[in-house]
Amino acid sequence: MMNTPVLTVNNISAAYGQSIILRGTTLSVKRGAVTTVMGRNGVGKTTLLKTIMGLLPAQEGSILFNNENITALPPHKKAKAGIAYVPQGREIIPRLSVYENLLLGLEAHPDRKAKIPEEEIYSLFPILKDFRKRAGGNLSGGQQQQLSIARALVSNPSLLLLDEPTEGIQPSIAQEIGSILQQLVQQKGLSVLLVEQKIDFANQVTDHYYFMDRGRMVLDGTAEELKHSELEKHIAV
Ligand SMILES: Nc1ncnc2c1ncn2[C@@H]1O[C@H](COP(=O)(O)OP(=O)(O)OP(=O)(O)O)[C@@H](O)[C@H]1O
């Protein structure tokens, strides 16, 4: 079990109406490591995460989570099975307090009596303890990103899908988020599928890269395996 991928995506396709976005996308996500998908704007990275989560149907191909076929499961069942999604733009509920936003994470917890693991969450994200009564909408972008990740962790996932966590936040906070991710991977064995545009942040956390173009993967490997020039070619805007 330890050596098998936590998630395998085989040849999936997905579309918005007539507009086909994923065209035979294949990747595998290593257990207890960070796998990062990079690629230019609009190549289908967000669509890939949405399809894995079940927010968009896969019209062809299959998705295996811990060797079980989850292709057609609805999002709430995937969440209960242990997949958490941190969407691009974070989707904090602005009028709810930080604590109430965290409570929403419990909806996806497989145990209905589960409570927020406050000690763990606040030791990872001390700012959320100080601000627990503050409205989510009054936090800075970086704090909202931390809240969004914390809310995902409240459901006790084994796989975290993370869409551009550094978008619009300052480099020092991005670096902090990077260290927290590393901690979660190394200490809790969390598996992460990250979509990222910033190579510096990606380099801080990534074990294995995939490069996506027009709905499919065109290159993959560890940082050592990939030549810098190749990376630049696939992320240049
Ligand atoms: N809800 C939607 N309806 C129709 N088309 C969409 C929808 N969402 C995204 N698209 C289109 O699908 C394509 C892929 O979008 P997607 O968001 O997956 O790309 P991305 O690689 O994540 O890019 P970005 O980095 O800009 O988020 C784009 O051409 C986009 O315009």
TrEMBL record:
Listed PROSITE patterns: ABC_TRANSPORTER_2 (PS50893)
GO MF term list: ATP binding; ATP hydrolysis activity; branched-chain amino acid transmembrane transporter activity
ABC transporter domain boundaries: 7-237
UniProt-listed Gene3D superfamilies: P-loop containing nucleotide triphosphate hydrolases
ATP-binding recorded as keyword: yes
Origin: domain of life: Bacteria
Key words of the record: Amino-acid transport, ATP-binding, Nucleotide-binding, Transport
InterPro entries: AAA+_ATPase (IPR003593), ABC_transporter-like_ATP-bd (IPR003439), ABC_transptr_urea_ATP-bd_UrtE (IPR017780), BCAA_Transport_ATP-bd_LivF (IPR052156), P-loop_NTPase (IPR027417)
Keyword match Nucleotide-binding: yes
Any single Pfam family the record assigns to this protein: ABC_tran
Alphabetical GO biological process terms: L-amino acid transport
Family named by the database record: Belongs to the ABC transporter superfamily.
Protein name: Urea transport system ATP-binding protein
